[in-house]
Amino acid sequence: MNVRDSEAVAALLSAAGYEEAASEEDADIAIVNSCTVRERAENKAVGKTGYLLAAKRAGRLKAAGLMGCAVQRLGESVFKALPGLDFAVGPRRYGAIPRLIERALAGESGMLEISGPDEVPQSMDAHGDCGFRAFTTVLLGCDNRCSYCIVPDVRGREYSRPAREVAAEAAALAARGVKEITLLGQSVLRYGRRNPAFAPDDPPSPGGYREPFPRLLEMLQTIPGLERIRFTSGHPSGCTDELVRAFAEMPKVCRHLHLPVQSGSDRVLKEMGRGYTRARYLAAVAKLRAFDPEFAVTTDVIVGYPGETDADFEDTRSLMEEAGFDNAFVFKYSPRPGTRSALLADDVPREEKERRDAVLLADQDARGAARNARLAGTVRRILAEGPSARNAARWSGRDGGNRITVFEPGAAPPAPGTFLDVRITRTAPQTLYGEIA
Ligand code: SF4
Question: Which CATH code for domain 2-113?
C-alpha cells in the first residue's frame, strides 16, 4: 500500500512539473513515506528523515517532508521529533503535497496535514509510468479492531472507492500497457460493505453477482488488455460462495489469496479479536482448494503475542500444516501505542519469539518445498518480469499463484511484461525453475 501511495505522490509531483532525481544525492526535495504498523518500521522512517534534515541544514536539500501512517500517529509531536521538518502529511491528505512543497520552497516550515477518520481522499488515481504492473487502492482504512493493530487509528474508517472510478482507472492503465493489476485494501473483501461502491444506475451484473467485491472483479474482467487481476489482503468472512464462483468463472482473476491468519489458537484469535475461529479459517482455505487444489494461499502470522503459551504456538504450527500454505510471513509481536494489546504484558521473551519465528520458517520451508514439488513437470503461464535478481543470465516471472518462476530466456529474451508458458523442471521451497515451453 505504501509503494502505491509513493507512486501516486510521484505522479502528482510529475504533473506539477517536478522531475524525479536520479539518486537521493541529486534531489532538491525529499519525502520519506512512513509505516507505523511495527515500531521498527516507524523508527527507521523517522531516523531516515532526521538524516535528510541534516542534509537540508548542510544546504544539500531545499525541502524535506514526511508522509504516511507515522505522521497520522505522531501528529504535531512529529516536529518535536524532527525539528526543521518542512511538512508532514497523513495518508488521506497526499493531494496537498505539491502545494506544501511550494510553501516550503517559499520559506514555510512545520506544516501538518492530517485527516479525520472519515475523510474521503482526493487524487487516488494518479499513476506514473508503472510498466506492465500496477497497484490500485480500492478500499481505504479498516473497521476491524484487531487488538494489536494500529491501522484503524492511522488509516481511518473504511471507505470503498466507487466501482466506476476503479474501472475507469484500470481501463486507463490497461490502455497504457498495464497487464496485471493488484487491488489493495486492508481487508479488501469488505469492499462495498460500509459505503455503497455501486450506484443505482450502474448496469446490473451480467453474471448475477450480488456481492460488491465479486461484482467489481466482474467489471474489471471485461477490460481489454488487462490480463491478470490480483487483490490483497483477504479475511475468511469474505471467502463466500460468490467469491469462489468468481475465481472459477473469471480467468483473469489469479488463483491466489493472501489470507492473514495471525494465530492457530482459538484462545489467541479471540484475544486478538480476529473475528474467526481456527475451524472457520480452515474451512475458508478448504473451500478455495476444493475447486482448485493448486490454489495458492499465503498468510501472515504473529509469534509471541502476549500470553502465547507453548500450546498456543503448537496450535499455530498445526494450523499452518493443515492449511498447507504456499508461503508465510512471520512477524515477532511488538506492542503499538494506543492498541488494546499494548495494555497487556509483552511477556514472551525476545529469545522465545525468535525461536518460534525460526521454527515456523523452517516448517514453511519444508511445506513450500513439498507443495512446489507437486508442480514439477507442469507448464505454468508466467508473466515475465526481467533478469532474475540473483543471476542476470536468467529471467524471473510469476505464475497465477504468485510463485516466483526462474527460467532461461533463450537467445532472444522476451520483453518484460510478456506472457510465456514455462515448463517446470526443478522446484525449491519458494521458487520454481523451468524452461520456455
Ligand atoms: S483487519 Fe485487523 S490487522 Fe488488518 S488492518 Fe484491520 S485491524 Fe489491522
Answer: 3.40.50.12160
Distance 149 CA to ligand 1 centre (A): 6
Q: How far from 321 is each of 305, 307, 403, CA to CA, in Å?
A: 20, 23, 19
Contact 184 CB / ligand 1 (< 6 Å): no
Q: 323 CA distance to ligand 1 centroid (A)?
A: 21
pTM of the model: 0.93
Place of cell 495458492: 296
Average per-residue pLDDT in the chain? 95
Q: Which atom of ligand 1 is nearest to the CA of 37?
A: 8
**pLDDT digit string (tens) for 208-264?**
999 999 999 999 999 999 999 999 999 999 999 999 999 999 999 999 999 999 999
Residue 274 Cα, ligand 1 centroid: separation in angstroms?
Answer: 8
Cβ–ligand 1 contact at 263 (below 6 Å): no
Q: Which residue in the block uniquely carries the three cell numbers 504484558?
A: 345
Q: Is 298 in the pocket of ligand 1 (CB under 6 A)?
A: no
3-state secondary structure of 4: helix
Fold of 379-436: OB fold (Dihydrolipoamide Acetyltransferase, E2P) (2.40.50)
What does the domain layout of the chain look like in residue ranges? 2-113, 379-436
Neighbours of 1 (CB within 10 A): 19
Strand spans (E) along 163-291 = 180-185, 228-232, 256-258
Average pLDDT score over residue span 157-165: 96
